[in-house]
């Protein structure tokens, strides 16, 4: 049995949420668990029977308390950390309604694309930032 087969695999819908000022919403992970305190693009694990788009909409409502529209696909990333394999399916999204709240995260911020370099992200998120710059 190879090692990769024994690592848990999560399929995650990820939102790059834009506002009307061309800013992106990022959130800081809680100060516990793996990748604690790192910044990330919000999203979460897909539930059985759910499309990626439905997953992203649900997770953003649960985690941030806002409504979004899920737009076009940006990138899909398969990344293996020592403890976890993730498949991140990333979509451009647009903020529709509500004030973002840090419900399941430590902090949230609206930032410009250029400001993303000022924050520490998990390894897999680096590819998302690169895709945004090349888009």
From TrEMBL:
Residue ranges of domain Nudix hydrolase in the record: 7-135
Keywords: DNA damage, DNA repair, DNA replication, Hydrolase, Magnesium, Metal-binding, Mutator protein
Keyword Hydrolase in annotation: yes
PROSITE patterns in the cross-refs: NUDIX, NUDIX_BOX
EC number: 3.6.1.55
An annotated Gene Ontology molecular function: 8-oxo-7,8-dihydrodeoxyguanosine triphosphate pyrophosphatase activity
Cofactor: Mg(2+)
Residue spans crossing the bilayer: none
Recorded superkingdom: Bacteria
Name of the protein: 8-oxo-dGTP diphosphatase
Lineage: Bacteria, Bacillati, Cyanobacteriota, Cyanophyceae, Nostocales
